Amino acid sequence: xxxxxxxxxxxxxxxxxxxxxxxxxxxxxxxxxxxxxxxxxxxxxxxxxxxxxxxxxxxxxxxxxxxxxxxxxxxxxxxxxxxxxxxxxxxxxxxxxxxxxxxxxxxxxxxxxxxxxxxxxxxxxxxxxxxxxxxxxxxxxxxxxxxxxxxxxxxxxxxxxxxxxxxxxxxxxxxxxxxxxxxxxxxxxxxxxxxxxxxxxxxxxxxxxxxxxxxxxxxxxxxxxxxxxxxxxxxxxxxxxxxxxxxxxxxxxxxxxxxxxxxxxxxxxxxxxxxxxxxxxxxxxxxxxxxxxxxxxxxxxxxxxxxxxxxxxxxxxxxxxxxxxxxx
Length: 328
What we know:
Blueprint: H1 23-63, E1 66-67, H2 70-73, E2 79-80, H3 84-90, H4 93-126, H5 129-144, H6 147-157, H7 164-171, H8 187-214, H9 219-227, H10 232-243, H11 245-260, H12 264-273, H13 282-292, H14 296-323
Antiparallel strand pairs: 1-2
Helix pairs in contact: 4-8, 4-11, 5-8, 6-8, 6-12, 8-11, 8-12, 9-10, 11-14, 13-14
């Protein structure tokens, strides 16, 4: 039998109190450390985000209430003008024209991207393995193509002299497109080319992400519907798509955000069109007001309004995802 250790005593022979931490207190301290661990792990990335985005956004917000132009770039103190920049913007009819044009462009581009992307994902599920791999590689190459390179390709394809687009259209009997200059024929032809470039670059992500989600759908559910006599379109619309709805909603949110603030494609195409007032979207309008025009206070106010529009457009969908537990 193991001998028990004698209790500790003080100099006068009295037993010393035990210094061992009570089990309940030790467990509580351990739980507190475990609860703090996620916050400590998030501290560094959150700090980097605040440093990289928080200060510029705060600076932009302050500048939106100031008159900040070329003189301020050379050291003259900015003048505080309050809501003057915002008042000037919302009373300018051109701002509302550009905003409506941007919203229409976003709706068409994002909607077409989702339809084409989901359609390609469904197609990849139903073709042979070799064709599926070839299609996935083509999508990856399209996705990896730099934006400026993609714009240059589509400029050549839509060229009014030797472009393949006009050649195909005239080949099927549409003689009005012989020598048709897409980028200088007006706002709608220009935006059609721009939307095509944006859709072509955005579709691969939607297709590949949707295909990955479709691959996770339980086959037993689909087979049960087929046994009950449901057709393929009904199975897709009423069973498969609702199952992957969180993925589709998230992709739609991303597309709205990306297409609303599109800049590089529009700006590059405008260099060939020569007319910016009729083809401006919010991104290029902010650039021309700030960088090109030197009115950084007004450009900052435009950027804050654009941010507000983004929040309003995506807030409902973010709430939907939050209720489904995907963002909580």
